Amino acid sequence: MKMNVLEINNLTFTYPGAGSPTLKNINLKVEKGDFLAIVGNNGCGKSTLCKVMNGLIPHFISGEFVGTVLANGVDTQTVEIGDLAKIVGYVYQDFENQIVRPTVLDDASYACMNYAMPDYIARGRQALKNCGLEGKDDEYIWQLSGGQTHLLALAGVVSLEPEVLILDEPIAQLDPKHADLIYGILKDLNERLGKTIIVIEHHTEYIADYCKHVMLLKNGHVEWMLPTEEALDKVEELQNSNIFPPQVTLAAYKLRELGKLKKDCLLPSTISAGKEVFKHLSFTKNEIEEKKPSGNDVSVSFQNVSVSYRSVKGEPKKIYEKLNLEIHKGEKIALIGSNGAGKSTLMKLMTGLIKPNEGDIFFRDIAVRYTKPEKLSKYVSLVYQNPEDMFIKDSIEADIAFAMQVRGVEDWPEKTKELLERFRLTELKERDGRLLSGGQMRRASLAIGVALRPEILLLDEPTANLDIATRKEIMKTLKEMEEVTDTVMIATHDMQLVSEWAERIIVLYKGNVIADGNRNEIFGNRDVIETVGIRPPEIFSMGKALHKDAFCYTVEEFIQSFA
Predict the structure, then answer these.
(1) Residue 472 confidence (pLDDT)
(2) Alpha helices, DSSP H only, in 115-258?
(3) Kindly report the CA angle at 403 between 395 and 470, in degrees rounded to 5?
């Protein structure tokens, strides 16, 4: 009989000043050795619940706390937060804030040293080994990739040898290669070391591949907790809670509704399961017209651009070497590649925030090298990956207005009002942008980005960490951008977004453009896919598994081809 490593009884929690509880009468038992995914729409209380599990609530975060939480049999309210960290470890969504030391081993062993453990170095080394970072002891933090940095944050937690590991959106900002690596490590910690893993996750395809149970949190209470296969079969309930079921599952659900699958069949949640369920379906080739770039006029030209970053030790890190690239007016461009490929650097070069070591960048006839970013901001605008970085005032209204005031826009009051209305922010105008939900932050940051009506709008990971409803809202906003700006470029790991929106896809790898074309030209090129570690939309891979000539980028295209 398995033991419960976490037990929550009749828990209700209300933040100070809140009109209603964030968590409502939570009763939950998590068995030792489980791999649990917590799902729910943005703002349903997922992160709050996890902070209850490791004692951050109520020890560090105050509020009205009713009920009991037992971690490995210990009442979280009765012990020090430091002792709880040895039972329940937590890797935050903004995991970089957990990195506190300059080198890898130094950071991995820091928590153990802080607790005066005599074997802190040995614990740090073992944690690095368990997290796939063996041999990187003396490397500086900045030398690591985004995925490796996330693993280091995990190693710092693992070094304390907790029974439970909680990770908040572990792959939100990672490319597929590093996402697979993170989940592979978590699987090993779960199966080999018996750690209980809890993830807050929006990517249901990873839930299908790795998790044992799924818990749906809705409006602050637990709707259900089920084995993964049963949970992902509840398509309507998931969608009503703004959760994307795996594309394979959604396709099967719609085909079942059309009478193409048996009514009593359990919906597949993985490609391997889909091959069995869909094997009787016949393929009909549908010629889907590819989106074509909107214009030919050159807006930005990169001419033999080289960029290197100085390093504390060793040679400077080369990001680009003799890059040549043209961006045309009216294009909708997706910029893709692995973490560290240079996507964000490319955007910062276009805004003048980074100057090339060699070569030139021209915005029409303006040499970016010799132009201040303030002047360039009238023509090109960058919306950052972390939207809170766009907020400097105490209200959204003030932030939008400031973007225009500081650049001498005379009719800024009228334009501020227009932007608030366009981005559905009027009712939120007096709110601090940093205290909004994820989707509201995204809309507010977009409003700031287009305040000067730039000819080119650059967006860095605009759909990261978002549920269905918020993602659809951002997609709607992107389509509306045509009325505001000529050209839009997005840097993203979201291949569904790429497939649904982009007219042109640029693939970066080790400082070079290794592919540049439409969906078929990119996702149909196996060499590019394997070299870069791109993961096409799941439904694309499902179609290819059934027929070599299938090019299905959306569930709707899959149904057209196989219904």
Answers:
(1) 74
(2) 120-130, 146-158, 176-191, 204-210, 228-232, 235-240, 247-257
(3) 60
The pLDDT tens digits for 89-130 are: 999 887 888 899 999 999 999 999 999 999 999 999 999 999
Which residue numbers in the chain have pLDDT < 50? none
Q: What pLDDT score was predicted for residue 293?
A: 60
Q: What pLDDT score was predicted for residue 453?
A: 84
Looking at residue 55, its pLDDT comes to 92
Cα 551 off chain centre by: 25
Report the SS3 class of residue 367.
Answer: strand
What values do phi and psi take at 494, rounded to 5? -85, 95
Which amino acid is located at 172 in the chain?
A
By the 8 A CB rule, do 165 and 189 touch?
A: yes
DSSP 216-232: EEETTEEEEEEEHHHHH
CB atoms within 10 A of CB 468: 18
The whole-angstrom separation of Cα 203 and Cα 409 is 42
| Cα dist from 338 to 205, 226, 362, 517, whole Å | 19, 34, 26, 18
Where does residue 258 rank: exposed (0-12), middle (13-18), buried (19+ CB within 10 A)? exposed
CB 289 within 8 A of CB 519: no
- Whole-angstrom CA distances from 402 to 399, 406, 436 are 5, 6, 19
CB 16 within 8 A of CB 182: no
CA distance 204 to 310: 39
The domains of the chain, with CATH numbers, are 4-246 (3.40.50.300), 248-289+557-562 (no CATH), 298-517 (3.40.50.300)
Residue 469 is predicted with a pLDDT of 66
pLDDT, residue 466, reads: 67
Q: What is the pTM of this model?
A: 0.84
